[in-house]
Design goal:
By secondary structure, the chain is α/β, with parallel strands linked by helices. Helix content is 37%, strand content 29%.
């Protein structure tokens, strides 16, 4: 079931000065997000991804097009309807946005107090959420006494206070170190799986997409340029901008200086094995090389596992008699795609 739908949405901001031009931050975007999924939107600065987020929680109004949440066109809602909508959407931020003057418990309690919940209900819900995020012993602490990861967990607990169906995460791990990022992403996965919350993640980090998302949307200059399952996008990006993001976490085929360095270190022939789902082809290729008396060494690349599905490239340096290498490659090519570097078109 589609929970969030943007249809032909454009958002243009007026010119900042008399001499400037209006800025179109989102340009004719159509996007559907299913209930229960984790969708990541990735793009460089100025791609329009954060504006999409603000359109979903009605902090911005589209210049044209419609934004629907659970079948309701939120651009037509009055103030009362918008309050109900925002109660069903949690939000976490890059810089945490906690109240320094409130304790951890007070920060999580805030949206419940605004919603008019009873004191007993607030107390019970706060305790439940702090246990869920692993901060049950920090209820009386203030934000300044917490690490960055702990602050973000407080932010997640606060975002979940009113039991929203949707959680919006705007660069939620950009201010964290790698280990803390992994902890926060693991917590967000639990929020999705255990609580059934639909999550929309905005990021410029492809590793966040690989770790957390089911589906990825790539934006550039306000438009969606590519979207699909995370495995499909990582294993075969079609757009140049997507390929740049993917290359930040996936070692691809060596080219240019990388290939020249490999040639200088390894006098044999350099070939790349294209690995697609399952390791049997690798074993068959290695067996074929060994059978023909060809020695091989993995000199570049790697294998990636995305939700149990495997892909990658292994670049091998082969040494042996020229005829033996030719025969070995001919045999091995029956099991997998092998490309000799220098012959790649």
């Amino acid at each position: 079931m589609t929970l969030i739908r943007l249809s032909g949405v454009t958002k243009t901001f007026p010119a900042a000065t008399r001499d400037a031009q209006p800025v179109t931050a989102v340009d004719d975007v159509t996007l559907e997000i299913a209930a229960g999924e984790i969708c990541g939107i990735i793009g460089y600065s100025g791609a329009g991804k954060s504006t999409v987020l603000r359109l979903v929680n009605a902090l911005e109004t589209p210049t044209s097009g419609t934004v629907e949440v659970d079948g309701v066109d939120i651009t037509r809602l009055g103030e009362r309807g918008l309050r109900r909508l925002r109660g069903d959407i949690g939000m976490i931020f890059q810089q945490f946005n906690l109240f320094d003057s409130r304790t951890v418990a007070g920060n999580v309690a805030y949206p419940l107090e605004v919603a008019g919940r009873s004191r007993a209900e607030v107390r019970a819900r706060v305790a439940e959420l702090l246990e869920f995020v692993g901060l049950g012993d920090k209820a009386g602490n203030y934000p300044e006494q917490l690490s960055g990861g702990q602050k973000q967990r407080v932010g997640i607990a606060r975002a979940l206070a009113t039991s929203p169906r949707i959680l919006l995460a705007d660069e939620a791990t950009s201010a964290l170190d790698p280990d803390t990022t992994a902890e926060v992403l693991s917590l967000l996965k639990r929020v999705n799986v255990e609580l059934g919350v639909t999550i929309l993640v905005i990021t410029h980090e492809m590793d966040v997409i690989r770790t957390l998302a089911d589906r990825v949307v790539v934006m550039e200059h306000g438009r969606i340029i590519e979207e699909g399952a995370v495995f499909d996008i990582l294993s075969a990006p079609r757009h140049a901008a997507t390929a740049r993001f993917v290359s930040s976490i996936i070692e691809d085929v060596p080219t240019g200086d990388d290939l020249a360095t490999l040639r200088s270190r390894h006098p044999g022939r350099i070939v790349t094995l294209d690995v697609r789902e399952g390791a049997a082809a690798q074993a068959d290729v290695f067996a074929a090389l060994s059978t023909h008396g060809v020695r091989f060494e993995v000199v570049h690349g790697g294998i990636n596992d995305i939700r149990g599905r495997v892909f990658g490239h292994l670049t091998l340096a082969l040494t042996g008699e020229a005829d033996a290498v030719d025969r070995a490659l001919a045999t091995a090519s029956a099991f997998a795609e092998l490309t000799e570097e220098g012959t790649r078109g």
